[in-house]
Specification:
about 575 residues; mainly beta; disordered N terminus
Length: about 575
């Protein structure tokens, strides 16, 4: 006998496939985990979704067998199984008549898994009985071993009750809004609405669509907006396509933005069919078409890279704005800017977002930097400008982030038609596999003398769950400041130069105070030293380096004290 047994847990959540049809499952399954050598892969009461227009549909299940020798099992229809089920659950299901199904009388088992196909006559069920009457029918089948010998069998796991679930052919459109963005110079862009069908195939000629101007008012009244309808001259129907594997149908339209003013337009589309039932959450599906200004010229562009653990509280990470830098870039004074800066959204392509704020004096973004409404699917982060404090606040949408996700956002400060652009990069920090704290005392140095700091490299590799060789070849260093600034751009030899505030700077720039480097020739060795001038007795500096391996990180915190 093979050393293989099949274990089944109570109240399994079961799904099976029949001609790409999903099967719903009742909760009548095993009550106790047990061991068996023969069983249906999924057993108990299940509902097979059968489409009323399909002449015959296959229901496929799997028989599991844990013996090495071949075995023939009988596939028996057993009405007593259904009688027991009815008595237990207070139902009145009837046994399905043989004229509406076919199944083999027996199956020869020669391997661990053997397919069993049962064919239902769906259209005949619909024609003879209809949906309601057919819904009271069940096919109860049982596996019976012809010569079970010492076969260990749990009877309950060899029983399958297949409930007939007739459904009319349906095309479902579940998305209420499709957002489309284009530049005012766009001559051709594509827009698509996708629905999903439950039958094995669809005839596109049986589907039709229409657009109704009066449903623009329905949307605007419900949403408190004043969007105009997209002019008929700016769109056209292109084609309809079918993805048989996904059982989807897509209606494709072409958008021409030429001549459109900046702003958002509505295009309400509805679908109908004489052959299929059309299921829509609302009477119409809407294209929301936003026309943005084409790529701008920016007087200056600044980039901030920060890091933050995954957060569910909208915690803001402040990023200081250098207002003097902004004034210089715009060629005006700081006083000129007071109360006169406007925050505008920027698309990933560099165009001007023409919609309103989606956050407080700022915007919500997808992880790729597309501006969206708060809570919309894909919400990942926000950036807001707090003018009184001269900071940008950046934070996350709750429960959206995963370890080491990298998010992006773009906005600009506008003054009299000129723009200063800001690119934001947010990395989601994981829990550290290890944290090391080092404190070093040095006198004032003028010759780049260093202090060696050793740690157990083999131990670190074990924290990462890898070998020393793999870690040595695959690590990456990052610097993380107390303010959350995050970079992998090294300014020293396999390390970083730091200002007195712990931020990474280039060698020799104003405020340059110390460096930390990781040895490329000796495992587990950092060195720390000072810039040749500028430090005083009593100074103390705190910096942190993160060592990343694959999707994990370790943190190294360094304190340098300048003493006698």
């Amino acid at each position: 006998m093979k050393n293989i047994k099949y274990y089944f847990l109570a109240l399994l959540v079961l799904f099976m496939a029949s001609c790409n049809e999903e099967l719903e499952v009742d909760e009548a399954a095993s009550e106790m985990p047990e061991e068996t050598d023969l069983a249906f892969d999924h057993y108990g009461f299940q509902t097979a979704k059968l489409i009323t227009t399909e002449e015959a549909q296959s229901y496929n299940t799997v028989i599991k067998y844990a013996e090495e020798s071949a075995l023939t099992v009988q596939i028996a229809v057993d009405s007593s199984l259904l009688n027991s089920y009815n008595a237990l659950y207070g139902t009145e299901y009837q046994v399905l008549s043989p004229e509406y199904y076919s199944l083999p009388a027996s199956v020869n088992l020669e391997q661990e898994e053997t397919d069993l196909e049962i064919v239902f006559q769906s259209s005949a069920l619909m024609e003879d009985l209809g949906i309601e009457e057919a819904s009271n029918l069940v096919l109860p089948i049982k596996l019976i071993a012809q010569d079970n010998g010492d076969l260990q069998v749990n009877d309950q796991m060899t029983q399958l009750l297949i409930h007939v679930g007739l459904e009319v052919p349906t095309v479902s459109f579940t998305t209420y809004e499709y957002r489309v963005a284009a530049y005012d110079t766009t001559e051709l862009a594509s827009m698509s609405i996708t629905g999903y069908y439950n039958m094995s195939e669809i005839d596109v000629e049986e589907m039709s669509w229409e657009i109704s101007e009066e449903n623009v008012d329905v949307y605007n009244n419900a949403q408190g907006t004043e969007y105009p309808i997209l002019p008929v001259a700016n769109y056209s129907f292109n084609s309809v396509s079918v993805n048989q594997e996904e059982q989807s149908i897509s209606f494709d339209f072409d958008l021409n933005a030429t001549g459109l003013s900046l702003g958002t337009y509505l295009l309400p589309v509805s679908f109908s069919s004489d052959e299929y039932e059309v299921d829509m959450d609302t009477d119409y599906t809407y294209f929301l078409v936003t026309i943005n200004q084409s790529a701008l010229d920016f007087v200056a562009t600044y980039e901030f890279s920060v890091a933050q653990p995954a957060d569910n509280e909208y915690t803001a990470l402040p990023i200081e704005l250098n207002i003097e830098e902004v004034a210089t870039a715009l060629g005006v004074s700081v006083d000129d800017l007071e109360g006169n800066l406007t925050v505008v959204g920027i698309t990933p392509e560099g165009g001007l977002y023409s919609g309103d704020y989606t956050a407080s004096n700022g915007f919500w973004y997808t992880g790729e930097g597309e501006i969206i409404s708060y809570g919309e699917e894909g919400s990942a982060l926000y950036v807001e400008y707090i003018e009184d404090n001269e900071v940008f606040n950046i934070g996350q949408f709750p429960d959206a982030a995963s370890d080491l996700d990298e998010y992006h956002a773009y906005l600009a400060l506008s003054y009299e038609g000129r723009y200063v652009r800001y690119n934001f990069n947010l990395t989601i920090l994981p829990d550290f596999v290890a944290t090391y704290d080092f404190s070093v005392d040095q006198p004032v140095q003028t010759g780049y003398e260093t202090t060696a700091i050793n740690f157990d490299f083999a131990e670190l590799a074990s924290h990462f769950g890898t070998t020393e060789d793999e870690l040595r070849a695959g690590y990456t260093l990052y610097s993380l400041s107390e303010a959350g600034y995050f970079t992998d751009v090294q300014t020293a030899n396999n390390g970083f130069w730091y200002a007195d505030n712990g931020e990474v700077v280039n060698y020799g720039t104003e405020g340059c105070s110390l460096f930390v480097e990781y040895s490329t020739g000796e495992d587990g060795l950092f060195t720390i030293g000072q810039f040749e001038s500028g430090n005083d007795l009593g100074d103390s500096f705190n910096v942190s380096i993160l060592l990343r391996y694959e999707q994990q990180m370790a943190r190294f915190n360094f304190t340098l004290n300048i003493e006698e």
